[in-house]
Design goal:
This protein is of the alpha+beta class and about 100 residues long. The chain has two helices and five strands. The protein has a five-stranded antiparallel beta sheet with strand order 2-1-3-4-5.
Length: about 100
């Protein structure tokens, strides 16, 4: 994961004020998720593409000015750029902890 993307200027959110219990959209509809991803432009937390509803990717498609997500899984520090189709790490970015 040494590659980077060309959209780092879209990063607005690198931390959330309070931990979330799960995928924002799944919680609203009673859905289920496997892993969580956070939009670094607005802080939306959605489920991964291995989850039934793929809300993180749906969030990007709804507003493609939000191309970056960070893993919202405890201990994971990787990011994904939907536009450049690349995974990478950002030095000193927080790893999230939630229940």
């Amino acid at each position: 994961m040494g590659d980077t993307c060309t959209h780092l200027d879209t990063i607005e959110v690198v931390d959330l004020p309070e931990p979330l219990a799960g995928c924002e959209d799944c919680l609203k509809i009673g859905g289920r998720w496997l892993h969580l991803r956070m939009c670094t432009a607005c802080g939306h937390v959605g489920c991964c593409d291995s989850s039934p509803n793929r809300h993180a990717t749906a969030h990007f498609h709804a507003d493609n000015s939000h191309p970056l997500v960070q893993s919202y899984e405890p201990g994971e520090d990787w990011w994904w750029c939907y536009r450049d189709n690349v995974a990478f790490s950002v030095a000193h970015a927080p790893s999230f902890s939630h229940t």
